[in-house]
# Entry
Amino acid sequence: MNTIKSYVEAHKTRFIDELIELLKIPSISADPAYTQDVIDTAAAIKTSLEKAGCDHVEICETPGYPIVYGHKHISDDLPTVLVYGHYDVQPPDPLELWESGPFEPIIKKTDIHPEGAIFARGSCDDKGQMYMHVKALELMNETNQLPCNVKFMIEGEEEVGSESLAWFVERNQEKLANDVILISDTGMISNTQPSITTGLRGLSYVEVEVTGPNRDLHSGLYGGAVANPINILTKMIASLHDENNHITIPGFYDNVEELSAEERAEMAKAPFSLEEYKNALDIDDVYGEKGYTTNERNSIRPTLDVNGIWGGYTGEGAKTVIASKAYAKISMRLVPNQDWREITELFKTHFESLAPKGTTVKVTPHHGGQGYVTPIDNIGYQAASKAYEDTFGVPAIPQRSGGSIPIVSLFEKELKSKTILMGFGLNSDAIHSPNEHFGIFNYLKGIETIPLFYKYFTELSK
# Structure
C-alpha cells in the first residue's frame, strides 16, 4: 500500500499532464466531422497501453470506429481481468455555456474539489476514468505488483450505442476470455463515502416526427383550420405521463422489478440530503413518480424524458408560420426485466395511436440496451469493496445507478462473466453537460485503488 501511494505521489504531475493531452482531442463519435479525431484518440490509447507495459496492443478494425485491445499475460494459472472503457465523448453543445473551451482542459478549484478538477469534455466520462486503469497497469508493472493477467478493450462508440462493440465481442470470445470485467464509467456517493454501483438501468432511445400539411403555412390564413404539428406533438408528449407522473404507455410496467420494503430500506441508508440536492441544481422542489423517493426515482424506477424538441421558426425576430413538421428525441430508462426492444415497440405502437386525423407520425428507434444487476456475494464485488475500504478508510456502500451502460448485459451473455463497476466520479461532475470536470483527488485515488482490486481478486480466486 505504501509503495502504491509513493508511486502515485511521485508521478502525479505526469499522470495529470498525460490526461490533459488526451482530453485535447475532440473524439466526438456522434459527429462525422470528428472522424479523424476519434481515430487519432484510438492511436493515442494504443501508445499509452504500450508504454504502461502491455505485452501486445492492437487497433482492431470494426464496421465503425476501432477498438483498442491490449493484454499483459503472466501465467495461465492466474485469473484474468478484462478492463473495458471508451475513448469517445459526447458533443459539447451548447458551447456558450462552457466557462472554458470543452477541448482546452484547465484545472480549477471548486468547493467540492478544493485540490482542483480538470474541466474538459470527457474528463470524467470516460477518458479520465478509463485512463486511471492505464496508469494503474503502469504502476503495477513498474513496482512488480501485477498479481494476475490483464486485458484491455477500449472502444470508440459508447456514446452512440456501441454497435460495433457487440459485433467485435461476438467474434472475439476467445481473445476476450476473462474471469471478471472491470469498468470505471460510473460514480460514487462522495469523496469521503465510496460506493459500488451494483445496478444499471436499461435504455430505449427514439426519435419522433409529426407531419401535418405538405408545407409550412401562414398562421393567419391557416391557423385554427389545420392541425399544427408542434401543438400536436406537445400534447402527445404531455399525455405520456399521468397526474402522478406514471408513464401511460400500455404494458410499460408489466415486467418492472418491484423491490421489497427491506431492499428499499437498505437503499435509504446511503447518505443523502434533499436540501443539498435541490441547492446544487438551483431548484425549489423535486419532481417525479408519486410514491417514491428521489434516489428511488433515479435508480430503481423506469422513466421517460424528452431530450430534445424542435420545429418551426426559431431564429431572431418573428415569423408567423405553422410548421409542416415537428420533432422530438425521447429516452426511456428501464429497470431489470424490461426488454428494451419490447419497450421500444410498445412506445411506437402507443405514440402512433395518439396522432389525430390530419397528421402522420413516424417513430425511429436509435439504440438501446438492457439493465443489469451485480450480486454483492460475487468475489469481484468483494475485491472492489476491500480495495475501496483500504484507500478511503470506510466501507463502500452498494448502490444502484440511474445511468445505462448497455454493453454490460452483452458481456454477461457473450463472455459469461460478471462486471464490477468501480466508479470514481461524482454526480456533480456535469457529465454530458457543459463544464464537465473530474476531480484531481478522484483521478489519483482511482489509480491508487485499482491495483488493490487486482490484489484482492487474485487472492479470493484461489
